Amino acid sequence: MNEKSKRYLKEFCIYLQIERNFSKNTVKAYNSDILSFLVWLNEKDISEVTYSLIREYLLYIQQFNYSKTTTSRKIASLRTFYRYLYREKVIETNPAIGVHSPKRGKNLPNFLTEPEIEQVLNNVKMDTPAGYRNRTILELLYATGMRISELSSLNFENLNLEENEIKVFGKGAKERIVLVSSRAKEFLKTYIKTVRALIFKDDGQGPETPVFINKTGYRLQPQSVRSAINEVVDKIELPKHVTPHVFRHSFATKLLENGADLRVVQELLGHSSISNTQIYTHVSAERLKQTYNAAHPRAK
What we know:
The chain is mainly α. Helices cover 57% and strands 4% of the residues. The chain is globular and about 60 Å long.
């Protein structure tokens, strides 16, 4: 990879972060995708790349058996990168025009039923400060539909528990308000008032202080929450793959099953497009069919 390509990649990442307001994780993923492409190009200059060469690269990465989601992101990275280079007049023509992502199948999101949610929550060991913190986190994930990254980023200035509200910053740093159930709020209040200081005793709870911390006083990272969930799911042998995002899916599914308006669910989830929210209507419809087939005497 030549030095000029390295420089343009660095400038591209700054553009994504500053101008496009992409999240750190998205910028990291795009950087990795473009870096792999540039390594494959070797010393070939980015201005020499043609549509045919990009197609050749896409054929090359097929051997790694990436999922359609990953392949789509890699293509999106290339298209965004070359659109940026064209805008900056680094190249005269955009070779990525006409490169399309593979069609993605409509996989229904995995979710937990109410009894399964309770089974997971009730099996979180709360006999330690960290255990109570983890239970609080899972209660919040299910009650609010927050992404785990949003929850990890919470500071005390984001909490408005008197109004049962929490301000979160989602993808692209988009701000929204999520609502907190009374049950989840009580867990959170106890954690803040009593348990948090048992995890790590600090000097206070300033506006920019993280709500959820580890034993060294630093912000709790999403991987720690995933590990806590895995420990519980493995113990109870739940026959489903459970991640923090499954709590978000379960939140949305339960709201729609109980008659919530699709636009309201979209707002609570922070989806930019309602098409991203509509998949949960398919989940609800599928459950209705299963219930009908199981309960109606002439369904079969």
